[in-house]
Design brief:
The complex is a heterotrimer of chains A (about 120), B (about 650) and C (about 180).
Chain A (H helix, E strand, L loop, with lengths): L22 H15 L4 H12 L14 H28 L6 H11 L8
Chain B lengths: L1 H29 L2 H30 L6 H6 L6 H6 L5 H21 L6 H25 L23 H30 L4 H32 L10 H26 L3 H24 L12 H25 L14 H31 L9 H21 L10 H26 L4 H27 L6 H7 L2 H26 L1 E7 L4 E4 L2 E12 L3 E12 L2 E6 L2 E5 L4 E5 L1 E3 L4 E11 L3 E10 L2 H18 L8 H14 L1
Antiparallel strand pairs in B: 1-10, 2-3, 3-4, 4-5, 4-6, 6-7, 8-9, 9-10
Chain C lengths: L1 H20 L20 E3 L7 E3 L8 E6 L4 H16 L4 E6 L3 H11 L6 E4 L3 H5 L7 E5 L5 E6 L4 H17 L1
Parallel strand pairs in C: 3-4, 4-5
Antiparallel strand pairs in C: 1-2, 3-6, 6-7
Classes of the chains: A mainly alpha (about 120), B alpha+beta (about 650), C alpha/beta (about 180).
């Protein structure tokens, strides 16, 4: 039963309904099987369980107003991250153009002569 | 007497840790050379006393001293010796002592391998680490003392949790803690650098091997935990996105971003403030993980005996350590400066993009883990967030990272050219697309997700090959290929091996998820069941006795096309002391598949529910992790970190002066 | 300075969340049935198997439905509280004997005392599932219109009775 792997056992709360050995889990698995035999769809079975136990029983949180941030958050993080990154990259490119003095150049050349054996 | 000695040693360690912090931080602030030099010795002293405390606890376990409450609840006289020793970290109090031991071991290592660093830097690093030690030792002494006595002493102990009586479980916490605690070094380096006002390429070079080593340990620790869950829990799963698993994964993701970020800061002096922040965040997530496991705020299969009082203490520790370091960051970061410039298309920008991806991934895992708590706390409802969410969100995030893994190492520093990259990678791209299109058929059937996974894995492997090929071809020294291969720095091999490990991992995950077969059936003696082309015949169950358990052992004979393959003996054990039933799965591991059998419940007088799995390429998951860790070890042990001390010190002083 | 403010703000919010979390129970599953009609059932009584009882029979009255079982350890803790409450006559208590055998259930009540006006017998636990029972004992306060108003998960304590149950019952009686 693939559906039971997405449902949470209410007794052994760190296992799916499919894996738990709790009495209630067995009862609920039987109920689900019974309903499937009667022709209920996955969505109807989910509604049946949520009506009795709430959203807690779903390992895949439903998309509602209160979970919008959860579902869109990752994409938002990525988008914001890239937006900030892009902005700084382009700003940095615009801000380039400092000059290096001759004395600094000479000093840099001395320091950049790598001792033998050291990788660049 | 020994337990009291242990407690005394811990108290002395606390004093030394306090001295370490004061001498280190104040000494550096005031330029007191004597204090700074003394910090090293005081730190070593702390290690000695923490080790003594740990040994005292270990002795109490070995000697079956049940007058110590912690020993009484985690051990038993029938427990084999090696598990009695492992019992030291089998419960909350002892595991915290292990944590501190790891911290003092790392501290000791820093005192040994920091000769080439400026004294002021070392003093500050040890000072910060000392503060962390103080916090944790106080936590142990005040809320989690493993040396408390129990009167009257029970005649025997309550036995180590049977789930922990296993080699994988024995090694998992030490490896994991080496990782978590190892990130405190990167953290300490970052804070020390912020405090000194000097945050340059030198700092990144010093931090890098430590951070990479910590990352290695964490990788191994997580892999061990996952592998253990696979063979121990009996349902063939290896990652459940459980809050505590996530608590170890978030520092890993951040740590991965950190080691890449440090590479850029070391080579080009760029992203300094970002790298420092990552170092602080990685350790913060380690501390957060400690909090989540032990406070009872989230339900988890892992939760130690949870206690809100302990939770408050750790939260306070989190607030002080991380709050303090963030404050220092905010005050000092604006002065850090930009560092070397680079184009929007360059190796730097790709590494930055990689960081954004990994940071978003870590953020998403954090979001999913804490969201139920957030909704509950604001009274907006009670939900669960489990594997369906994390898998939906995580895979699309990681795919771009896998793509970048192929392109990034080939891109030039400062300025890369897209046409140039495309031409160098065209064969790798072609190979990957071919792999994605064709290989799934070799496994039986084509699927879009499998194709994508194989494409990305092939891409990483093929582009890695291109990277190696170019490095050898362009190598300056050596006439023949062998000399050129040897001239490639070890750190480059580290990168190639680690990335290859990722490819192996992705193959494992993709193929197992795409093609595994599970059969859950009621079997009578002589019945057979088919899975993955193998035939499993159930030959009944016999009763056996173990050292501290009684078991029902099943016999399953496996054949393929009539030829015998192996015999598997899954067990259903009942550990005598705790009367806890345990399923011991029987696994036939292989390079291309695992055959996995576990016993369910007996049905009636003669039949049993038997679970049979065919898991193709599942061992590539942990194999990939080990290869990744090997890559990290190679990178961390690169020669450049071990060059002559004085020369390095002179160089860094000069570089620091210039920036 | 702006992005640093965001950093500190996020960190402080995280700490606040975790601090609040220390007071919450992550294992508790609140009932979605609060404010909804009590699920209908028709079950045989525990003492007299021939008679049936339905939730409709209680329309017009405020009552408590207490889910119990002879195999349940916490029910023993709660039992004296129920006996006291029943003796006070404040509100009628009806029992739902959940996934038990008749003999065990009857014997348990005989030995521990019977605070219930009557107990119904839910052998296979189906009615329990309808009521969202996941851990015995659980107690529901149901009003005159048959709407569930409150659910206590876990054993009733004198404090819960005094602070939550009785005031609610009085308010519902007035309505």
């Amino acid at each position: 039963m693939a559906l039971a792997t997405e449902l949470r056992c209410l007794v052994c709360q760190n296992q799916t309904l499919a894996d738990s050995n709790a009495d209630l889990a067995q009862d609920l698995r039987n109920q689900i099987r019974e309903k499937m035999r009667q022709g209920s769809s996955d969505a109807q079975i989910v509604d049946y369980l949520v009506a009795r136990y709430g959203d807690f029983v779903l390992y895949r949180p439903p998309l509602k107003a209160t979970t919008a941030l959860l579902w869109f958050g990752p994409l938002l993080l990525l988008a914001v991250g890239f937006a900030v990154l892009l902005r700084r990259l382009l700003k940095r490119r615009a801000a380039e153009g400092t000059t290096v003095s001759a004395a600094d150049r000479k000093r840099a050349a001395e320091l950049l002569v790598a001792p033998p054996g050291e990788p660049r | 007497m020994i337990p009291e000695l242990g407690q005394l040693a811990l108290a002395l360690a606390l004093c030394l840790a306090l001295a370490q912090s004061v001498l280190g931080l104040l000494g550096a602030a005031r330029g007191e050379t004597v204090w700074m030099a003394a910090t090293r010795h005081v730190a070593r002293g702390q290690f000695v006393f923490v080790a003594i405390a740990f040994l005292c606890l270990a002795y109490s376990f070995i000697a079956n001293d049940f007058t110590v409450a912690y020993v009484a609840s985690n051990s038993n006289s029938a427990l084999p010796l090696h598990y009695r020793i492992a019992g030291v970290w089998g419960g909350h109090e002892g595991s915290m002592l292990l944590w501190i031991l790891m911290l003092s071991v790392w501290t000791f290592a820093v005192t040994l391998f920091s000769r080439h660093l400026p004294l002021e830097m070392v003093a500050r690093v040890l000072g910060v680490m000392g503060l962390v030690s103080v916090g944790f030792i106080l936590f142990i002494l005040f809320t989690s003392n493993p040396f408390l006595r129990l009167f009257p002493a029970p005649p025997d102990g309550r036995d180590l949790n049977p789930l922990l009586q296993d080699p994988g479980m024995v090694a998992h916490p030490p490896m994991l803690y080496m990782g978590y605690v190892g990130f405190s070094i990167a953290f300490s380096f970052a804070v020390a650098a912020l405090l000194s006002g000097r945050l340059d390429a030198a700092w990144a070079r010093w931090s890098r091997p430590w951070t990479t080593a910590a990352w290695c340990f964490l990788t191994i620790g997580i892999a061990l935990g996952s592998g253990w869950a696979y063979y121990e829990l009996g349902w063939g799963g290896w990652w459940f996105w459980d809050p505590v698993e996530n608590a170890s994964f978030m520092p890993w993701l951040t740590g991965t971003a950190l080691i890449h970020s440090l590479a850029v800061t070391e080579k080009r002096g760029a992203f300094r403030s970002w790298t420092v922040l990552l170092a602080i965040v990685a350790f913060a997530l380690s501390l957060l993980g400690t909090f989540l496991v032990r406070s009872g705020v989230l339900t988890s299969v892992h939760a130690f005996a949870t206690d809100p009082t302990r939770g408050i203490f750790i939260l306070a520790l989190l607030a002080i350590v991380i709050g303090g370091s963030l404050l220092v960051y905010v005050l000092r970061a604006p002065k850090i400066g930009l560092g070397g410039g680079f184009e929007p298309l360059s190796r730097e920008s790709m590494l930055l993009a990689n960081n954004v991806i990994f940071a978003s991934a870590a953020g998403s895992v954090l979001l999913g883990t804490l969201y139920p708590l957030a909704l509950d706390a604001t009274g907006l409802g009670k939900i669960s967030v489990g594997p369906p969410y994390f898998e939906t969100v995580f895979v699309p995030l990681m795919a771009p990272a896998l793509f970048l893994m192929g392109v990034g190492p080939l891109a030039r520093w400062k300025k890369a050219s897209l046409p140039d990259l495309a031409s160098r990678l065209r064969w790798a791209l072609a190979t990957s697309v071919l792999a994605g299109l064709v290989l799934p058929f070799a496994m039986g059937r084509w699927g879009a997700m499998v194709a994508l996974g194989l494409l990305l894995a092939a891409w990483v492997a093929a582009s890695g090959f291109v990277q190696l090929y170019e490095k050898v071809r362009n190598a300056s020294s050596g006439a023949n290929s062998w000399a050129r291969l040897q001239s490639v720095p070890r750190a480059t091999y580290g990168m190639l091996v680690a990335h290859f490990g990722v490819a192996v991992f992705v193959v494992g995950v993709t193929l197992v998820k795409g093609y595994e077969t599970e059969k859950d059936v009621r079997m009578e003696r002589g019945d057979t069941v088919e899975a993955g082309g193998y035939t499993f015949r159930f030959d009944g169950v016999t009763a056996v006795q173990g050292p501290n358990y009684a078991a029902q052992r099943g016999q399953i004979v496996v054949t393929r096309d009539g030829r015998p393959v192996t015999t598997l003996n899954p067990e259903k054990r009942v550990y005598r002391v705790q009367s806890m039933p345990m399923t011991e799965a029987a696994i036939s591991p292989g390079l291309t598949r695992d055959l996995y059998v576990s016993l369910g419940e007996p049905v009636g007088a003669t039949a049993w529910i038997v679970r049979v799995y065919h898991k193709p390429f599942v061992d590539w998951i942990w194999g990939g992790c080990l290869i990744m860790a090997l890559g990290g070890a190679l990178a961390a042990s690169d020669r450049r970190y071990r060059l002559a001390a004085r020369r390095l010190r002179e160089q860094y002083a000069a570089v620091a002066e210039m920036t | 300075m702006n992005r640093y403010a965001i950093l500190i703000a996020v960190f402080v919010a995280l700490l606040a969340l975790l601090a609040v979390g220390l007071k919450l129970d992550p294992r508790e599953v609140p009932s979605p049935l609060i404010g909804k009609p009590a699920p209908s059932f028709e079950l045989p009584e525990l003492h007299e198997a021939a008679k049936t009882f339905r939730e409709k029979d209680m329309i017009g009255k405020v009552w408590l439905l207490n889910v119990w079982a002879s195999w349940c350890v916490s029910c023993r803790e709660e039992h004296p509280v129920l006996l006291d409450l029943a003796a006070s006559g404040a509100v009628p208590i009806y029992g739902l004997n959940y996934k038990d055998t008749r003999e065990d259930g009857l014997a348990w009540l005989k030995g521990m005392g019977d605070p219930y006006k009557l107990s119904i017998f839910d052998a296979d636990g189906k009615v329990g599932i309808d009521y969202g029972v996941y851990g015995v004992p659980e107690t529901y306060v149901i009003d005159k219109a048959g709407i569930i108003r409150y659910k206590c998960i876990g054993p009733l304590t004198p404090r819960i009775v005094k602070e939550k149950v009785l005031p609610l019952v009085q308010e519902l009686e007035r309505a």
